[in-house]
Design brief:
Aspartate Aminotransferase, domain 1; 2 domains; seven-stranded mixed sheet; four-stranded antiparallel sheet; 14 helices; 15 strands; 14% strand
Length: 426
């Protein structure tokens, strides 16, 4: 498509957008600009997604059952709490490309990562090392460090980092694969975020998984910035395990419930070490209070505690929207929406005769990114970000010099990205 740098063109794209009515399903924050209240240009769905209008109704159902039924809500509520995690299996399995038995919704992201590392980081003999990307999200890195220490090992000796080439910001797939090949006899685990939080780079997870499979190296993936953003096929790609949060692209509220994927090869292995609790025990015998833990089949066997129903109710509301929209349609719009934003930024860069104040460091190929564009700023980047905020843009700042913007296809418009580009130029 040939883009145009005009409001009329952006509005034409919005008019023909098959997903345009989904924006009406969300609350758009209001901000003050020059003393007047207006809808914000919200480009921060990669950090916290907006609230679906249906969340309140879903919460009221559970609050009402709690009010009227008390403990009986576990079995006699409209959505019986005892079975609550089952309500997500179909929707979540479609989002990550899995079988329904391979996924479960529970806990929060880093809690789940630690639980999964207990099972899947099993250092033995020469194989003690974990390969990660150098610029990994700190919470993941902390979890990996501490898991290594739990085994009485030294993180400095056991963590292998893949770093970008000189004068480059993102990683090349061939360099990731070369690093795996180099350390194939020493690696117990490869742990990667599917989309890097800082650069917005989407990695070729399938290719990495293939190499890990060839060398019998366990491969785990953090999907925090990938789920609800890009299409995934975890089962077909032979990913060993994955986990994610639901408060970013999945719009399920601050601190929203997490989820995990465990490939069926492992999910049927009841001998695999894991931490245990009664909610992971076989449902058939849970309330007979057996003395010994017998995990239920599938990913659900990694549960420990009962479901946080109120948090899950918000998640349920959001997933119903994803079921209606479908990831193929969302991804198609996302590629066009982010592509238009990138074109606008490059177009005004070419027209601006003053020295460059910023550059986009996210890969240009649509196959190597999701919604997010990371804009690396000059020395006055923080002031630039503050001016954007004052002008009605909600984005986010990441030290030392990046503004992250993520036009989300469920509720962002082409006019949103056009107006953002205009404000940035000013």
């Amino acid at each position: 498509m040939k883009f145009e740098n005009s409001l009329a063109f952006a509005r034409t794209l919005d008019k023909s957008d098959p997903l345009k009515n989904f924006r009406k399903l969300f609350y758009i924050p209001k901000v003050k600009v020059d003393g007047k209240k207006q809808e914000a240009i919200y480009l921060c769905g990669n950090s916290l997604g907006l609230q679906p209008k249906s969340v309140e109704g879903h919460l009221k159902v559970e609050l009402n059952d709690w009010k009227k039924l008390g403990v009986e809500g576990h079995l006699h509520g409209k959505n019986p709490w005892f079975y609550y995690h089952h309500f997500f299996s179909k929707s979540v399995s479609k989002l990550v490309g899995a079988k329904a038995t391979e996924v479960v919704v529970m806990n929060q992201l880093t809690v789940n990562l630690n639980l999964l590392l207990i099972s899947f980081y099993r250092p033995a003999g020469k194989r003690k090392k974990i390969l990660v990307q150098a610029n990994e999200f700190p919470s993941d890195y902390y979890a990996i460090e501490q898991q290594i220490k739990l085994h009485g090992l030294n993180p400095e000796e056991c963590i292998v980092e893949v770093t970008p080439r000189k004068n480059e910001v993102t990683l090349r797939t061939e360099d990731i694969i070369a690093k795996i090949e180099e350390h194939k006899e020493e690696l117990a685990l490869v742990m990667f975020s599917a989309v890097n939080y800082y650069t917005g780079q989407l990695f070729e997870i399938e290719k990495i998984a293939h190499v890990c499979c060839k060398h019998k190296i366990t491969f785990g993936v953090d999907l925090a910035h990938a789920i609800g953003n890009v299409e995934l096929k975890l089962h077909d790609w032979n990913i060993d395990f994955a986990t994610w949060c639901s408060y970013k692209y999945l719009n399920s509220g601050p601190g929203g419930v997490s989820g995990v994927f465990v490939h069926e090869y492992h999910a049927k292995n009841f001998e695999l070490p894991r931490l245990a609790g009664w909610w992971g025990n076989n449902e058939e015998t849970r309330f007979t209070m057996p003395k010994h833990f017998v995990p239920q089949p599938g990913a659900a066997g990694w549960q420990i505690s009962n479901a946080p129903v109120l948090s899950m109710a918000a998640h349920k509301a959001s997933l119903e929207i994803f079921d209606k929209a479908g990831m193929k349609a969302l991804r198609k719009k996302s590629e066009l929406l982010t592509g238009y934003l990138e074109w606008l930024l490059l177009d005004q860069e070419q027209k601006n005769k003053s020295p460059k104040e910023y550059r986009v460091i996210t890969p240009k190929s649509k196959n190597e990114r999701g919604c997010q564009l990371s804009i690396q700023t000059g020395k006055n980047g923080k002031q630039l970000f503050q001016k954007l905020t004052k002008a009605g843009v909600i984005a986010d700042w990441r030290e030392p010099d990046v503004i992250r913007v993520a036009p989300v296809p469920l509720y962002n418009t082409f006019e949103n990205v056009f107006r953002f580009a205009q404000i940035l130029r000013k």
